[in-house]
């Protein structure tokens, strides 16, 4: 049975920012809120390191505020910096362009109190105030769509344990788009639930320029990563509509064909293609103009951008698919590879990183390569390790060496006949699937022959880093079919070359 906690838990607020003017208003709202105040507010300065200018300074507001820097790597990376620096069980993520109600702290406390232990997160309701004297513009309708998003991190509180287990936000999502849905899908697949809260947060309407809707098409590249990680039906699972990419492809093909046929002096075929392009573009523009204010400026904007959006959307999607195909990952065995081997390790205080582990992981992360863990843990099946102790050890490994984008462990014994215990390949295959990476572009780093065999059976590549317990036959196997490295940093450099 899941346990419930009837006292409001302590929480930390994490706010990634690119220096928006609204940030101070948000902090003032939190400072004057009713209810238990956060243990700390972590403001993550995500301005690019070379262009940030002066350090971010904030007025004294009576809140325990700390400013950290994330180097302009995007909101996913900024949130990871924030939650990993937080000390509380719960981390409440807020975007720097929202405003909280006066009762936000008390409602958050109510939302988090009494949650079962298998609840990973509590999501707020988003309110977008629109003028009631006219129809909303295209930018305003885009903001209004946030009210229908299921797991928007404009205001969402996550349990630290769940973030550790799934590796936090995927930093391959470079903008504030899809990174929140991706995290929620991974959390749910790991067996957690997400609760709807009672708190309401205001998101003012966006004000974009003439080509704002064209710039938003960059999100099609992120959709390619979502498809790779969550399958072709990810939109349905995330509560999304079907999207317009298919129509955009048809419109773009019609336009390109019309130009090519004109150049080839095939006027009749070119006219048919141009007619199809005109019809599809007109339908798209009409669909966008109809719900709006229909002012001359808005109509002109919709007409022009409706012609530009299809090819731009297709170009971004192709670029995203190319990046996915070129994606790579490195998976590590845990015991005697990342940390010193302690038989049936159940005490977090006994976790000791292996020499060179931190340097190897830093090298891979600096290159933008996702890293994960694949580990046999027969102590769970034998009763030598409890699930709680295993989670505590995992948290400690994450504190010392994380974050890891995927954790895969086999809880079975050697005689259980499971498909996941190394040298069987299931853990490697699951890790590659979870990361959205072709298993052939994964490298498994381990210290014994079963690590090498699991990688090769799965179709991945393998690097053996021998230790005192590595058998000579295992080294010979690796020399014939994989790679042998003298230490972890060398293994990381080889892994970058292999992938």
What key attributes describe this structure?
Rossmann fold, 3 domains, globular, alpha/beta, single chain, Spore Coat Polysaccharide Biosynthesis Protein SpsA, Chain A, 19 helices, 14 strands, 44% helix, six-stranded parallel beta sheet, eight-stranded mixed beta sheet, 499 residues, 15% strand
In short:
The protein is an alpha/beta fold and 499 residues long. 44% of the residues lie in helices and 15% in strands. The chain contains 19 helices and 14 strands.
Give an account of the 3D structure.
The relative contact order is 0.08. The model has no long low-confidence stretch (mean pLDDT 94). This protein has 19 helices and 14 strands. The strands form two sheets. An eight-stranded mixed sheet has the order 3-2-1-4-7-6-8-5, sandwiched between helices. Strands 11-10-9-12-13-14 form a six-stranded parallel sheet, sandwiched between helices. Helix 18 (472-481) links the parallel strand 13 (461-464) and strand 14 (483-484). The protein has helices spanning 22-31, 75-85, 104-112, 138-144, 160-166, 179-189, 212-215, 219-230, 234-237, 245-263, 267-289, 296-325, 357-366, 378-382, 387-401, 426-435, 449-458, 472-481, 488-498; strands at residues 11-17, 40-45, 65-69, 90-94, 99-100, 119-127, 155-159, 193-202, 329-332, 371-376, 406-410, 442-446, 461-464, 483-484.
């Amino acid at each position: 049975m899941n346990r419930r906690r009837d006292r409001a838990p302590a929480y930390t607020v994490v706010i990634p920012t690119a220096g928006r003017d609204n940030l101070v208003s948000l902090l003032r709202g939190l400072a004057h809120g009713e209810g238990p105040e956060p243990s700390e507010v972590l403001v993550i300065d995500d301005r690019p390191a070379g262009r940030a200018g002066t350090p971010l300074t904030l007025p004294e507001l009576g809140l325990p505020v700390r400013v950290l820097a994330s180097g302009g790597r995007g909101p996913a990376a900024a949130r990871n910096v924030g939650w990993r620096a937080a000390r509380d069980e719960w981390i409440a993520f807020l975007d720097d362009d929202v405003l909280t109600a006066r009762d936000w702290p008390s409602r958050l406390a109510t939302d988090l109190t009494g949650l079962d232990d298998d609840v990973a997160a509590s999501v707020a309701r988003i309110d977008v105030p629109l003028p009631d004297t006219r129809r909303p513009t295209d930018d305003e309708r885009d903001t209004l769509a946030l009210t229908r998003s299921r797991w928007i991190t404009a205001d969402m509180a996550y349990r630290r344990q769940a973030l550790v287990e799934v590796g936090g936000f995927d930093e391959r999502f470079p903008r504030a788009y899809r990174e929140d849905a991706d995290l929620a899908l991974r959390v749910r697949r790991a067996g957690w639930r997400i609760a709807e809260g009672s708190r309401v947060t205001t998101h003012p309407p966006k004000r974009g320029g003439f080509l704002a809707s064209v710039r938003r098409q960059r999100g099609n590249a992120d959709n390619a990563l979502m498809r790779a990680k969550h399958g072709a039906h990810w939109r349905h699972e995330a509560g999304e509509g079907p999207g317009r990419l298919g129509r955009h492809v048809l419109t773009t093909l019609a336009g390109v064909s019309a130009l090519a046929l004109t150049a080839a002096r095939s006027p009749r075929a070119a006219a048919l293609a141009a007619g199809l392009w005109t019809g599809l573009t007109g339908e798209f523009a009409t669909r966008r103009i109809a719900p709006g204010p229909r002012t001359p400026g808005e109509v002109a904007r919709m007409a022009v951008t409706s012609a530009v959006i299809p090819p731009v959307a297709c170009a971004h999607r192709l670029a995203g698919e190319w990046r996915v195909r070129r994606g790579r990952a490195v998976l590590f065995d845990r015991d005697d590879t990342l940390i010193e081997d302690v038989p049936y390790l159940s005490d977090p205080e006994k976790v000791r990183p292996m020499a060179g582990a931190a340097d190897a992981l830093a090298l891979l992360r600096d290159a933008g390569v996702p890293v994960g863990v694949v580990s046999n843990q027969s102590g769970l099946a034998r009763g030598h390790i409890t699930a709680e102790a295993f989670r505590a050890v995992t948290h400690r490994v994450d504190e010392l060496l994380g974050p890891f984008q995927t954790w895969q462990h086999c809880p079975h014994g050697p005689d259980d006949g499971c498909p996941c215990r190394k040298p069987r390949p299931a853990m490697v295959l699951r890790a590659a699937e979870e990361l959205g990476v072709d298993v052939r572009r994964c490298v498994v780093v381990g210290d014994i022959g079963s690590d090498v065999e699991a990688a090769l059976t799965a179709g991945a590549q393998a690097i053996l880093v021998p230790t005192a317990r590595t058998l000579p036959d295992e080294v010979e196997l690796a020399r014939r079919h994989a790679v042998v490295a003298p230490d972890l940093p060398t293994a990381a450099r080889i892994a970058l070359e292999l992938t």
